[in-house]
Amino acid sequence: MARAAGQWRGAARESADGMEREEKHSLENCAAGQRSFLAVGEAQKPVYDSAPGVHDSVPVTHRHQYSVLAVNRSDGRVLWKKVVREEWPHEGGHNTGSPVSNSPITDGELLYAFFGSRGLYCLDFDGAVKWQKDLGKMQTLHAHGEGSSPVLYRDTLIVNWDHESDSFLYAFDKRTGRELWKVARDEKTSWSTPLVIEHEGKPQIVVSATKRVRGYDLATGAQLWECAGLTENVVSSPVFTRGLLIAGNSYYQQAMLAIRLAGAKGDLTGTDRVVWQLKRYTPYVSSPLLYDDTLYIIQHNQNVLSRLDPINGKPRGEPLRLEGIRDFLFASPAGAAGRIYVTGRDGATVVLRHDRENATLAVNRLDDSFSASAALVDAELYLRGERFLYCIAERR
After folding, report:
1. How far apart are alpha carbons 343 and 381 in whole angstroms?
2. Contact predicate 249/208, CB 8 Å
3. Rounded to an integer, what distance in angstroms lies between the CA atom of residue 193 and that of residue 205?
4. Which of 53, 210, 257, 305 is the most exposed place for a label (fewest CB within 10 A)?
5. What is the CATH number of the domain that holds 220?
6. What is the mean pLDDT of residues 8-31?
7. Burial state string for 253-270 with b = 16 or more CB within 10 A and e = fewer than 16
8. Is residue 320 part of a domain?
9. Position 3 in a domain
């Protein structure tokens, strides 16, 4: 679903403001009353052989249509659908993944949809393609698929291209698609979405990856700093608060570190710029939620929620087991109106109070499977399942 703030979780990668709390939902109360629309990336659901391949990857069995849909927020009607590409994917993906894991974004005037190896597209709100770019074909680790989303900052569109061949970070003019700069990255496959921050009066791009977390000057692409410390298969995106950049991941090993960016320059590995590090509590697929002064983290992809002080990395209470969720968690937690929303692949969403106790307020179930993170807009909660797109709101 397209995010209007230019980054997949909004400008600060934190909680949503102005949303009335919605604690209970079901198939019966999926209703809303707004006049605007959602944009959703879509690919034809793959049909796989009965047995998955090595490392949970799956083969490709037919051509895919890659399309963008505009959906009316008030009643769920599809306003338009634009097929931007149709082809056989050159490699498969993870058996729990999607060919369209990348989230579209918008500046309120134009819409940007990134399909990885199937191209980068700029569309207007009527579904007309204004420009497009073909960046080549990714070769992802274990053929697990692609997933990094584009990021928009003012007139610049940022795309990260980390894979098993030559990796790059791109910047494009959002209106014309003109390449502003392209910098090589000594990296392997990562799925993390870049984060744009404003620090010491200048915007910079931060990208988490296996070898290094790196910061780049947004205007020129010049690398400003780097820091080692994460592990293999970086999916989770970083967060930024009070001068601290916090990045983490979890695969065979767990790692999280907080980097103080004041005056950061060059290689920060092992220096006093790294103010804390952890080898537990860390996320795998989901990204942390920074809500007020608390960092909420899904441990690996389990139904366990940890709460940390982002300044010193110390736990705020014992980890919470989310009893209502019985399957893996891939979606990132979301926060609004003093509530934390955590959605599992089994269709359960646990609603917690945002305070020191984090009491469970509700456990809601939908007959679907969810990997995408929730979108919070005004007083509405949007959930993208494998079967349906849901709007959760109070009936009016």
Report:
1. 12
2. yes
3. 10
4. 53
5. 2.130.10.10
6. 49
7. ebbbbbbbbeebeeebee
8. yes
9. no
Position 142 scores a pLDDT of 73
| pLDDT of 31 strictly over 70 | no
Provide the token pair at 267.
């290689």
- Give residue 374's domain range: 27-392
Residue type, 254: Q
CA atoms within 13 A on the CB side of 311: 3
Q: State how far Cα 85 lies from the chain centre.
A: 23
Instruction: Name residue, tokens 């198939």.
Output: 27
Task: Indicate whether 13 pLDDT > 60.
Answer: no
* DSSP symbols for 353-392: ESSSS--EEEEEE-SS-B-SPPEEETTEEEEEBSS-EEEE
Name the band, by pLDDT with cuts 50, 70 and 90, for residue 54: very low
pLDDT at 44 over 50: no
Number of domains in the chain: 1
Residue 87 burial class via C-beta count within 10 angstroms: exposed 0-12, middle 13-18, buried 19 and up:
exposed
Q: What b/e readout covers 370-391, taking b as 16+ CB neighbours within 10 angstroms?
A: bbbbbbbbebbbbbbbeeebbb
- CA distances (Å), 130 to each of 69, 112, 174, 175, in order? 16, 10, 10, 8
For 216-234, the pLDDT digits (tens) are 999 999 999 999 999 999 9
3-state helix, strand, coil split of the chain in percent (to 5) is: 5, 45, 55
Instruction: Give the bridge partners for 393, in sequence order.
Output: 30
Closest by alpha carbon to 301, among 279, 332, 278?
A: 332
Tokens of 211: 């070898």
Report the pLDDT averaged over residues 312-316.
97
- Mean pLDDT on 74-92: 86
How many angstroms separate the CA atoms of 328 and 88, rounded? Answer: 29
Q: Among 9-18, 109-118, 257-266, 309-318, where is mean pLDDT lowest? A: 9-18
Domain assignment present for residue 15? The answer is no
Residue 276 lies in a domain: yes
Report which of 31, 26, 9, 41 is spatially closest to residue 288, judged by C-alpha positions.
9
- Is residue 94 exposed (0-12), middle (13-18) or buried (19+ Cβ within 10 Å)? buried
